[in-house]
Automatic annotation (TrEMBL):
Residues 70-130 form the Complex 1 LYR protein domain. GO terms for cellular component: mitochondrion. The lineage of its organism: Eukaryota, Viridiplantae, Streptophyta, Embryophyta, Tracheophyta. This is Complex 1 LYR protein domain-containing protein. It comes from the Eukaryota. One of its GO terms (biological process) is mitochondrial respiratory chain complex III assembly. It comes from Ambrosia artemisiifolia.
Length: 156
C-alpha cells in the first residue's frame, strides 16, 4: 500500500496541476480496460478464424464473384459510353441516348440478384454483343450518311 501511495505521489509531483487531475480521471478508465493494444483489439474486433474447411471451390467462387462484379460494371460503363453517340430523337421527342440508358438500367436491375454463374455469363456475353452490334450499325450508318453527303456535293 505504501508503495502504491509513493508511486501515486511521484506521478503527482512530476505532472503539472492540470495534467495531474486529467491523469487521475484517465487512470480510472485505463485500469478497467485492457493492458495492451492487442487485448483491446481482441475484445472489440471480431476476427474471422481461418479454418481448414475453406475449400478451393469457395475461394474460387469468391474470386469469381468479384471478377464478375467488375465485368458487370465494365459492361454498364461501356453501355453508358456507347449511348453518347445516339443523339437523335425518337417519335416522342426523347433522345435515343436517354431511352437506351433507361432500358439498360432496367435490364441490369432485373438481373441484379442473379446468382447462377452460367446465367450471369450468358447475360454478360449478350450485353457485350449487343453493344458491339449497336456500335457497328452506328458506324455503318455514319459511313452511309457521309457517302450520301459526298455524292450530293459532287452533283452540285
Amino acid at each position: 500500500m505504501a508503495a502504491a501511495i509513493r508511486k501515486h505521489w511521484a506521478v503527482a509531483i512530476s505532472l503539472q496541476p492540470k495534467q495531474y487531475f486529467n491523469h487521475l480521471y484517465c487512470r480510472h478508465f485505463l485500469n478497467n480496460g485492457p493492458d495492451t493494444v492487442e487485448e483491446l483489439l481482441d475484445r472489440h474486433v471480431v476476427k474471422k478464424k481461418k479454418s481448414f474447411d475453406d475449400s478451393e471451390d469457395e475461394i474460387l467462387t469468391r474470386q469469381r464473384l468479384t471478377s464478375t462484379r467488375r465485368e458487370v460494371l465494365a459492361l454498364y460503363r461501356d453501355i453508358i459510353r456507347a449511348t453518347r453517340y445516339f443523339m437523335w430523337v425518337d417519335s416522342h421527342g426523347v433522345l435515343w441516348r436517354d431511352v437506351l440508358r433507361e432500358n439498360a438500367r432496367k435490364e441490369f436491375e432485373e438481373a441484379r440478384f442473379e446468382k447462377d454463374p452460367e446465367v450471369i455469363t450468358r447475360l454478360l456475353i449478350g450485353g457485350h454483343d449487343a453493344v458491339q452490334a449497336a456500335l457497328d450499325k452506328l458506324v455503318e450508318k455514319q459511313k452511309q450518311q457521309i457517302a450520301k453527303e459526298k455524292a450530293e456535293r459532287d452533283r452540285r
